[in-house]
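## retry 2 of 3
previous attempt timed out at serialization; input unchanged, resubmitting
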Amino acid sequence: MGAAASCASESDPTAADAPLDAGATSSDAGVSGDVADTSAPAHVDAGRSDAGPTAVTCGEDKCVTSLVTVGYGEGFCAHYHDDTVLCWGENTKGQLGRGDETNNYGDGTPTRVVGVSNVVDLNHTCAVDRNGDTWCWGTGAFLRDETQPVTTEKTPVKLPLPPATKVMIESFYDHGVGCAVTQVGLLCWGSNLYGMLGQPAFGDDLHAPQPPRTIAMPNGAPIRALAMGHAAFALREDETLTSWGANPPLGRISSLFPDPKPKPIALSSVKDVDVQGDNACAVAEGIAYCWGTPPGNPYTGSALPLGRALPEPVPTPEPVVQIATATSTSNVDPRRGCAVSDKGNVYCWGDNANGQVGDGTKNYATSAVKVALPEPAAQVKTTSKTTCALLLSGKVMCWGDDGFGQLGAGTLRKPSLVPQEVVLP
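## retry succeeded, writing output
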């Protein structure tokens, strides 16, 4: 999903005055008696806003229209102006979709994924084309082997699904799950370890790969976007958010661990949602919210401490319209995040051991820090060690680690504490 922008970013990074009380890292409807009121308190630094994401305006051929992470590892993919897909960074699991053996570790040169064209939707290493066909590459639940939850595909494979408009694949350990918005409804398949197939997780169904199943969603508006980590989220056209799966990061009150029944989260006017593993973030009414498992308590399928179980506001200097999250290896706090404001400014917080906050230091960011960019941003995406921002002009800027070439600077392979431009073909 995108983000908004209007004014040029200031040149000097600044920090928010308020401390970050929600932590940080990595989409339906209505209200039910099974949810609690998690609306933001009256005092939130940024204030409320109903602004939504602003689309990229392409003025030249080298123009990216949307940006995603590869999902599994340190890398990024981009929806290019000609409706092809570019990927760069880690390639240990075929994430670049090139089918070659020469750069199986990683590549810093953005290159087109082979055999994928006419793309209308891109999420991690899966794309939907204009015909509604779903293509995936890398490692995930690609419905290739009835005995294996996940497979690795170095070139794109077509998934045996009805015509789709949205797709999302998530891999964790040796398990994987996928969901797609299709002509016959929302379908999910793969491992039911976290209850994301819409039914209780136990017995053979817990680990064995399952074929596509229809998920019984609450009545409501069509699904605009999907996000998946250890829980699944559906963001609808009426800007409501539904979740099911691991608890936490379910984001709502439930007695089930995990909870396989999709039910609404008590947030309204939701513009964006992102999840990575046990941690999730969303933007609602211009306010950034994050939630998930407490530090040092990875989800294991049973009940966990609920200190971060419900959405908590993350103070930001301005209202935000888009958000990204990631897990990290920090011993202080295993979460980090970034957001785009309604003016197109990018703010990051959390682990900064690799300079992924973008403020020119490696100091842990306890509050949202402004990133110095040459122009307003439309979108930000972050991995554990690296962050990239899509500017309104279609250019991409990245900062942080470059061990796999994830900064997109070609063969340079040099980390950067400040944003540098990705070299597009």
